[in-house]
Amino acid sequence: MAEVMQRRSLLRGLAALGLGAGLAGCNRDDPTALNVTILRNTLPPQLINRFRQEFPAQALRLQIKTTPQDIFKQLEVNNSPSQWLSLGGAWLKLAIETRAIKPLDTLPHWANLEPRWQQLVQRNAKGDPDPQGKIWGLPYRWGTTVIAYREDLIQPTGWRPQDWADLWKPELTQKLSLLNQPREVIGLVLKKLGQSYNTANIDQVSGLKPALEQLRQQTRFFASTDYLQSLIMGDTWIAQAWSTDVLPILNRYSNIKAIVPKSGTALWADCWVKSPQTTDTTDGGWLEFWSQAEVANLFSQFSPAISPFLTDFQANGPAKTLLLPNQPTFQTSEVILPLSPSSQAQYDQLWSEVMLQGAQ
Predict the structure, then answer these.
(1) What is the dihedral of CA 184, 189, 191, 193, to 10 degrees?
(2) Which helix (H) or strand (E) element contains residue 339?
(3) Are the C-beta atoms of 256 and 249 separated by less than 8 Å?
(4) Is the distance from CB of 127 to CB of 93 less than 8 angstroms?
(5) What is the DSSP letter of 43?
(6) Domain around 226
(7) Is 222 helix (H, G, I), strand (E, B) or coil?
């Protein structure tokens, strides 16, 4: 019922902006319509309107999905009606391996993409990053993993969190929530130890397992959905969180703050990918639109994420500076990339050993 209510609220809001009919399936019978699958609440309605104004001859039909898994399932069945779909960077390897997406023939404004975003989408046929590989998507929004905390509960301790190492402080025992994502959690421990999120041979990282075990003992629960509720209620003091989850609540709860860890953090991005059923030689203006600097700047203002094509870093307001860390921090932050099978096995083994031990 809650899901139904959320969907109804979304459609009411879009209808108020004159977009409800389009998102609900306008142009359903138009064979020339551009079909795009998006994740709910990720595209600012103002910019959907703008796309229609810039491309008045191009009918647009949007299909809304609730989770990234729903979008991948649509690709997996290999009969997607959409030419373009929003896919998280973490799904690219699997999508390429299973031939659920097609490489792009051309990519507008490729030279304007920061190298880390180019590396994310340039892959070989196995889905691994390869500077000689084909381009498999256009990154259009990104965010960070942050530390969110209850300022009022932390203040009596006389310190504020600045970096991942603070999560091991004794006063935080059973006061943490961490994402239920092995690469995110093991990655923050690696970062604390001066290593990379994408370290290939973690068996050789001194002190990694003991540090992860200590962090588990600090942690009240692991979750990747609805995890901020405990922070709001005061059951936890600190949450490892995705920036797009945190930004919407900062203005509602003045006692909740967030920081990007000084030693660097994980970066993520969503990409426009091409359905294998697509035979069109043009993108209907879709990729060109989202890679325009002006649209990128507006997207970054109206959305809790940032466009990789952003050029105006001053027009995003105080809260958005959370996504625009200072250059040294940004340069030491990393996109989490796929591992080789042998490296992935090391991560899986470490996570299993530490989590199973904690459950005993």
Answers:
(1) -170
(2) none
(3) yes
(4) yes
(5) S
(6) 144-266+337-359
(7) strand
CA–CA dist 42, 66 (Å, integer): 10
**Residue-wise DSSP of 159-199:** ----SGGGGG-GGGTT-EEE-S-HHHHHHHHHHHTT--TT-
Domain shared by 102 and 216, yes or no: no
| Spatial CB neighbours of 198, under 8 Å, sequence gap ≥ 6 | 334, 336, 337, 339
Instruction: Give the integer Cα–Cα distance in Å for 39 and 42.
Output: 6
Distance (Å) of CA 196 to CA 83, 121, 199, 337: 36, 20, 5, 11
> What pTM does this model have?
0.88
Q: What pLDDT, in 10s, does the model give residues 259-310?
A: 999 999 999 999 999 998 877 666 789 999 999 999 999 999 999 999 999 9
* Window from 12-26, 152-166, 268-282, 292-306 with minimum mean pLDDT: 12-26
Burial of 213 (0-12, 13-18, 19+ CB in 10 A): middle
Let me know whether 315 and 342 are in one domain: no
Axis-axis angle for helices 341-359, 182-192 (nearest 10): 90
Gap between the Cα atoms of 218 and 185, Å rounded: 13
Burial class (CB in 10 A: 0-12, 13-18, 19+), 40: middle
Number of H helices, E strands in the chain: 16, 12
Average model confidence (pLDDT) across the chain: 88
In a domain, 155, yes or no: yes
The domain tally of the chain equals 2
Residues 239, 257, 152: CA angle, nearest 5 degrees: 90
Q: What does DSSP assign to residue 294?
A: H
Q: In whole angstroms, what is the distance from residue 234 CA to residue 325 CA?
A: 27
Residues 27 and 44 in one domain: yes
CA 240 – CA 227 distance, rounded (Å): 9
Nearest to 287 by CA among 277, 300, 272: 272
